[in-house]
Structure prediction request, 428 residues.
Amino acid sequence: MIAALLVVLAFLALVFFVWLAKGRAATPEPQQLAGRIRPVDVEAFRNLMDPAEESYLRENLSPADFRTIRRERLRAALAYVFCVAGNAAILVRIGEAARHSPEPSIAQAGERLVESALRLRLAAFQAVAKIYLGILLPTVDISSTRLADGYESMTGLVFALGRLQHPARRATAIL
Amino acid sequence: MTFLGILQYYLMIAPHLLLVGVVFCLARHKLYKRFPFFLAYVVFEILQFAVLFTLILLPSTGSERYALAYSIGLGGSTLLRFAVIYEVTVQRFRRHSAVSKLAVPLFRWSVAGLVLLALSLAAYTGGGDLPGIMVVVVALDRAASIVQCGLLLLLFGFSSYLGLSWRSHVLGIALGMGVFASVELANTAIRSHVGRAYASYLDLLTMATYHVCVLIWIWYLWAPEKIPAKNVQQLPEHNLEAWNQELQRFIQQ
Prediction:
């Protein structure tokens, strides 16, 4: 069973390698790529993810309604992030082409564009993971500040407990 | 001599002669400066072949001595392949500081995860009806194939997600390694299941795949690296910085 699974996985990996290598040859022109960029409203996304608005909804809706509304808002936010990530991938391609321009100002702008678009692609990857977690667990507050607060209070408790148990030992040794 | 015998000799000798051509390509474009581990791997493969082929021709060579030499060679080869994958990964992302910061820990953790997975699978599936030391060699070879295939998948997948275009020399080396790692993974998995049955056909498959990989390396390394000559007059308007700030704020919220 495991051997068969490994053979299938190896075959899929082989197809993936060859497909990616072949796909590299068919890159469209930058002008064509630029036409594929879709404008995405950053303000709309900000409103969707506003913690104050979320707190308001949490306080004023029944738990079942809150779960439904929050999932819908997160799905909408996900669509925004996917769209932005798609735009960033296009801008990486355009920036890479611009980097080889004989015009130094365009080449430098291309370099900056690639770095900025790559940072956005990586941020989008993390944001998507966080949004999916929110869709799966709509009642759990997934904000990292809350998590950090939780961690801080937890370590505070461990510190206090450690001092009670071993008054002479440093806290770092316990944590 | 049978057709199978002739084919076996051809697949044993030809790829290693062609590897001399790979060394020539590396020297021609001074690529040994960018890919020292790949050069070391290619030279090691040529020397390993010379030693093993001499042992085959010597009538006094026993099967145990050959198995030992083969195992040592396989170990060296596997280690150098890991070094080449590392080298390709570094070359792939070296220009992009934003990616390098994430890529290094990502690959480090992936290696740890893949090694654990590969060793547990190797221990679980065993080595079929193979004799003595070869059980261990095949199990370790399979574990190494899993890790190498996984790392190359991660490299190709990560690059594809980021939308980065491949430079031809790096792509050629990575593609050759990827093709060999995936076929070798399938090969070792089948070997663990069927044992010594079909061993000569599986050996032929490995050798034929290696031949293809050497041809891939020559194909990609022969030509000078092409810089895409796309005409960019001006860059499109974008709000990347605003989105970058917004997503960072959301991630850290």
Remarks:
- The radius of gyration of chain A is 24 Å.
- Chain A touches chain B through 65 residues (CB under 8 Å).
- Residues 144-166, 168-175 of chain A have pLDDT under 50 and may be disordered.
- Chain A has two domains: 28-140, 143-175.
